[in-house]
Amino acid sequence: MKPGSTFLRAFLVMLLLVTGAGAFGDEITVNVVSRVLQSFDPDEAGRETARNWVLLPSKFGYDSKANSYWQSRKLDAWPEALYGKNRDKEKLQVLGLTGKFSRKGYNFVEIVPGTGEGQNFKPSPIPIPGRVETIDLWVWGANYAYYLEAHVRDFQGIDHVLPFGSIRFAGWKNLRTRIPGSIPQAWRYLPHLRNLELTKLVLWTQPIEKVDEFYIYLDQLKITTDLFETSFDGSELADAETLQQIWGAPKQ
Predict the structure, then answer these.
(1) What are the residue ranges spanned by the domains of the chain?
(2) Widest pairwise Cα distance in the chain
(3) Could you give the angle at the alpha carbon of 113 between the alpha carbons of 112 and 114, nearest 5°?
(4) pLDDT in tens, 78-132
(5) How many Cα atoms occupy the beta-carbon half-sphere of 161 within 13 Å?
(6) CATH: 3.90.1150.10, 2.60.120.260, 2.30.30.520, 1.10.10.10. Which one for 31-246?
């Protein structure tokens, strides 16, 4: 091998190491934590949380008078695998859903978070802090060949579908979906972080499965997320809350 080529190769290796350290140094330090987005439990005063979850079924989820076959309610229950068998001190609740469709097929029901009820209901996506890595949810299934998915929206207003998978099992099970790297959660400008938001859960039926007398229960919608942010001189001026205090809500 020629001396010149050996020197060139060594130089390229050193250059790669130096530039690589600068490009990926931020990703070495992380602060991954778990956060509950929705527990479905009452608050300390015994009141239910202000967030409502409304059921919006597809075409065959309504009768001839446009009344929905679907309804939801809170009830006292919990996954024993999560909380244990006996819970005397705390009041734990889950969200129960029931409904049907008038015919088989690829039917779906959207489970949408928001505020208000009836005609006053307003969808309100749930902000997800940090750079989220996974979303998980406890689901009580009744062995129906249905499947569940989460919908998240990025800062560009683009919706992404994340599969939780099949709910063809009996009783409680924790379902998890991972956020792919293709979904943007940051950009080059300040502030760098651009949070995702959860817009809805969607339950789908399979054409081979029965579509009447269905029950499902949901509990503890949770995330794992990286909250680490690199500090720099003047970083407080890039904080989202500080920007809103100074300049008000961003214009759409």
Answers:
(1) 31-246
(2) 86
(3) 120
(4) 999 988 876 665 689 999 999 999 999 999 999 999 998 888 889 999 999 989 9
(5) 9
(6) 2.60.120.260
Contact present, 121 and 50 (Cβ < 8 Å): no
- The pTM assigned to this predicted structure is 0.79
Beta-ladder partners of 110: 56, 202
Please name which of 194, 230, 185, 233 lies closest in space to residue 24, comparing C-alpha atoms: 230
Here the tokens at position 170 are 């009996």
Cα 77 to its chain centre, rounded Å, is 22
CB atoms within 10 A of CB 95: 18
| DSSP-based three-state secondary structure for 111 | strand
Residues 76, 219, 126, 130: is their CA dihedral positive or negative?
Answer: positive
Tokens of 23: 């490009």
3-state secondary structure 141-174: EECCCEEEEEEEECCCCCEEEEEEEECCCEEEEE
Task: State the CB neighbour count (10 A cutoff) for residue 160.
Answer: 16
The full length of the chain comes to 252
